[in-house]
Design goal:
Blueprint (H helix, E strand, L loop, with lengths): L4 H64 L11 H47 L9 H14 L1 H27 L4 H31 L5 H17 L1
Helix pairs in contact: 1-2, 1-3, 3-4, 5-6
């Protein structure tokens, strides 16, 4: 970790950015469904106005063509047919005005809700805590990500790992393949001296206790001796 410290620090910065982006996305996801629904409703209201305007324009065109003889009956006059078409166009125009007034109000209300939701979302994003990633586990994760991105770093990481293993296990292998030397003899003498001293101490304590119990009644004395002999045998 120390060898690749600079690379790991850069990767930690990237991980922090990814974490914050995920938090932002989580906040935005809570508003997405409502926002999309409101946008679809606004688009539908605008579409209704456009379709009604096209109908009004078409009826108005038919009335004009009937009046100037370029369409309909092909006779230039303001007769009954023109009046019917004119009435239809006027009715469509009045309906369009009512529809525009109603839909524009609904569009304004829904746009206000959209704007308010955006403000709430932005406020929550600004209140998000940018947690600094700098722990040992995070550094190991960063090194793992670097190794996945770069074959050179992965190879160097394995080489350093194997080098440390070799250095740490070298004394054990040297000991295993080495022949018996003076140190081993001295160690064996010390270990033997410790074991004999232990046996001597146990025997001395055993004898002292037996001597103290000789004055006891035969049953108690025999009981203690049997238990002492058992303990000494187990030792």
């Amino acid at each position: 970790l120390k060898i690749f410290e600079k690379e790991i620090q850069s990767e930690l910065t990237l991980m922090e950015q990814e974490l914050f982006a995920a938090q932002e996305a989580a906040v935005a996801a809570r508003f997405t469904a409502d926002q999309e629904k409101l946008k679809a409703e606004i688009a539908q209201l605008k579409k209704e106005i456009e379709l009604k305007a096209l109908t009004r324009d078409e009826l108005d065109r038919q009335a004009r063509e009937e009046a100037d003889g370029t369409g309909g009956s092909k006779r230039k006059n303001l007769g009954p047919i023109y009046k019917v078409k004119k009435d239809q166009a006027d009715k469509a125009s009045a309906e369009l005005e009512k529809l525009v007034a109603r839909n524009n109000l609904l569009i304004w209300e829904k746009s206000e809700i959209l704007s308010r939701n955006d403000s709430i979302r932005l406020a929550e994003v600004q209140n998000l805590e940018r947690r600094k990633i700098d722990g040992p586990a995070n550094r190991m994760e960063a090194l793992h990500r670097l190794a996945e991105k770069s074959y050179s770093i992965a190879l160097a990481n394995w080489f350093i790992l194997l080098l440390f293993i070799a250095v740490e296990t070298a004394p054990i292998f040297v000991k295993l393949i080495s022949s018996t030397g003076p140190y081993d003899h001295l160690l064996k003498i010390e270990e033997h001296g410790f074991e004999t001293q232990k046996v001597e101490s146990l025997a001395r304590v055993h004898a002292e206790i037996k001597a103290r119990t000789e004055q006891m009644p035969p049953i108690e004395s025999e009981f203690i001796n049997n238990r002492l002999n058992t303990l000494l045998s187990d030792s």
